[in-house]
Amino acid sequence: MGFRCGIVGLPNVGKSTLFNALTQTAAAQAANYPFCTIEPNVGNVAVPDPRLDALAKIAGSAKVIETQLGFVDIAGLVRGASKGEGLGNQFLGNIREVDAIVHVLRCFENDDIQHVDNKVDPIADAETVETELMLADLESLEKRVPNLQKKAAQGDKEAKIAASVLGQALDLLRDGKPARLVEPKDVEEARVLKQAQLITAKPVLYVCNVNEEHAADGNAYSARVFERATAEGAQAVVVSAAIEAEIATMPPEERGEFLAELGLSETGLARVIRAGYSLLHLLTFFTVGPKEARAWTTFVGAKAPQAAGEIHTDFERGFIRAETTAYDDYVRFGGETGARDNGKLRSEGKEYVVQDGDVMLFRFNV
Questions:
Q1: Residue 351: Cβ-neighbour burial (10 angstroms; 0-12, 13-18, 19+)
Q2: Half-sphere exposure (CA, 13 Å, Cβ side) for 324?
Q3: Using one digit for the tens of pLDDT, what is the confidence trace for 246-300?
Q4: For 59, left (φ over 0), alpha (ψ -120 to 50), or beta?
Q5: Which residues on adjacent β-strands are paired with residue 150?
Q6: β-pairing, 204-209 with 42-46?
Q7: Which residues of 29-45 are buried (b: 16+ CB within 10 A; e: fewer)?
């Protein structure tokens, strides 16, 4: 689907270290779906999902192909970015093109790594970045909303919808609040808000970059970030970018023991990837057979033809039905035949809303 998360942050917070660890880890994954560099600062990373291996084992699949999520290492931000300071214009241009923001915050002490403000304060850092993003959106909307209001007064229905929802965003920004707090009243307003490409309307994942000793449970700095995330409806995870960079260079068979020594059950990057997937309100469905077991991405609320279209546009255009088995039933009854014999394989039509974990076989005719 091409969903991409933009990694942002102030200088020296571990942003590039995190991105490099992501890319190195992905490159070391199974060759069936290796890391792919689209541009120097863009990479697609497999979404970890143990269900896929279980399905492949049952079906005797020759290949396992994960679904993926894109990460973009966006040019660093400095104060004044909204006015073009530093790489401000490049930064703002790149961030408008992503679907969600992964905001890396420094939650560690290290005298050898200088902070731009000579102090460790992740909340102040978050506010610095958020302020620049809000100023950029504010400038954009102050030019657009008055024109929309004039057209709305003249009877333009589209302009009336846009003036309403973008006017709400403008009021929030003037009050120092991000546009993601806008609550569209219907699908038309939601569509307009999305098309407006407001930076502060994008969902946010805070990544608390901590020292090694705090990788398992976080610290006082990260606790403050989690409080902020909860208050604004965002998400947060704890990661030690230094540990992730070290893990990325290890042979896969050594990683489990290394993580266990640190009191970790999985890598921080796995948490970042899954949180990004959740942040975008995505779900996974599967196709399973002797050639391959494959995970696919679609959005929560997608109907069967839309999911079919993720595989091929012809599948959506000529959709007839989807033979569907819930993941738990597929595993419980040992595959498609067992699920069918026990009445758990369903024939679903065009109005079926896809559920996370569905194992699907699409029937189509074009």
A1: exposed
A2: 22
A3: 888 888 888 889 999 888 888 888 888 888 888 888 999 999 999 999 999 999 9
A4: alpha
A5: none
A6: unpaired
A7: eeeebebeeeeebbbbb
Q: Give SS3 for 149.
A: helix
d(CA 304, CA 216): 40
Express each pLDDT in 112-162 by its tens digit: 766 666 688 999 999 988 888 898 899 889 999 999 999 999 999 999 999
- Antiparallel, parallel or unpaired: β 100-106 and 204-209: parallel
> pLDDT of 167-186, one tens digit each?
999 999 999 999 989 989 88
Tokens of 130: 């958020």
The strand order across the sheet containing 346-348 reads 63-65, 292-299, 282-288, 359-364, 319-325, 346-348
C-alpha count within 13 angstroms, C-beta hemisphere, residue 58 = 22
Distance CA 345, CA 330 (A): 9
Are 126 and 206 in contact, with CB atoms under 8 Å apart?
yes
**Helix, strand, coil share (%) of the chain residues, nearest 5:** 45, 20, 35
Burial zone of 268 (CB within 10 Å; 0-12 exposed, 13-18 middle, 19+ buried): buried
Q: Which of 55, 60, 71, 63 is nearest to 7 (CA)?
A: 71
Helix extents (H) in the chain = 15-27, 50-59, 88-96, 122-153, 157-174, 187-195, 220-232, 241-248, 252-261, 268-279, 304-311, 313-317, 327-332, 336-341
pTM of the predicted model, to two decimals?
Answer: 0.80
Q: Name the strands in the sheet holding 204-209, side by side, starting at the edge strand that comes first in the sequence.
A: 36-39, 42-46, 68-73, 4-8, 100-106, 204-209, 235-239
